[in-house]
Design a protein that fits this description.
- The chain has 8 helices and 11 strands.
- A hairpin with a 2-residue loop joins strand 10 and strand 11.
- Helix 5 crosses helix 6 and helix 6 runs parallel beside helix 7.
Length: 261
């Protein structure tokens, strides 16, 4: 079985700055992983390299593979690796119903247009994924009328419409209140328990739900550490990563971090 994701000696330059520097790591099928790092560490560039918005600076010396393939189209990517970013959430928060928003995933659009032919199978799948994220009762509500947590879960459902093997969630709880954060993290845990590989890109330790066993930390565009979270999510390591005094607490596999002093 090929690896889900492989980066081999990848360097990416953005606006005259090396945003990624010789990054090498891989993620296995079924392995739940967090990509952790402060703002400016290279997390967004790494994600944009997966989606082909950015390309390696030295293509002959590096490789980026998804399921063993170096070349893929956007539709091929959606069918195997769903990606939810904050930009996508903002783009989807339009005056379309939740069910339309999910159905539009089949057409690469936002909302359903007159030229789109929605099949019964598509409708069935759209209702299934809304039910999975416990927002089926909101199917006919406009996205602009939903709470931030509800809207985020609808966009998760949209990403799941193609039945991908894995979901990449970029800063999944960003700008959410405490209740919405819990709803989204519960949804992440449900995904992991139902056979969907979860990759979380974040700078919030609480986003690293108990099902995530491995952390790949980025700092200044390089891999800072990579391994099992139990030995790495410590106050000492977090102080080095974020360059500020912090305390770290762990409760039943959930981690939290707070400033000290």
């Amino acid at each position: 079985m090929p690896k889900l994701l492989e980066f081999d000696n990848v360097s990416v330059e953005r606006e005259g700055t090396m945003a990624l520097r010789n990054v090498t790591f891989s993620i296995e099928d079924g392995e739940h992983v967090a990509i952790l790092g402060p703002n400016g560490s290279g997390k967004s560039t790494l994600l944009k390299t997966v989606t082909r918005e950015c390309y390696p600076r030295y293509p002959l010396e590096s490789r980026v593979r998804i399921w063993g393939e170096e070349v893929w189209t956007l539709f091929e990517l959606r069918a195997t690796l769903g990606i939810v970013t904050n930009d996508l959430v903002a783009t989807c928060t339009k005056p379309y119903s939740a069910i339309e928003t999910v159905l539009s995933a089949f057409f690469g659009s936002i909302g359903i247009w007159p030229n789109h032919h929605v099949t019964p199978a598509m409708e069935t799948r759209a209702h299934e994924v809304l039910e999975f994220f416990e927002v089926a009762h909101l199917a006919d509500r406009l996205m602009t009328e939903l709470s931030s947590g509800e809207a985020r879960r609808v966009v998760f459902a949209r990403a799941l419409a193609h039945d991908p093997k894995a979901l990449v969630l970029d800063e999944p709880t960003n700008s959410l209140d405490i209740r919405a954060q819990r709803e989204v993290r519960d949804a992440m845990r449900k995904l992991a328990h139902n056979g969907v590989t979860v990759i979380v890109v974040t700078h919030h330790l609480p986003d690293i739900v108990p099902e995530i066993g491995r952390v790949v930390a980025l700092k200044d565009g390089r891999i800072f550490f990579d391994g099992k979270k139990e030995g790495l999510l410590t106050a000492e390591k977090m102080e080095e990563l974020f360059e500020t005094p912090v305390g770290v607490e762990e409760t039943r596999g959930c981690y939290n971090m707070a400033l000290v002093g």
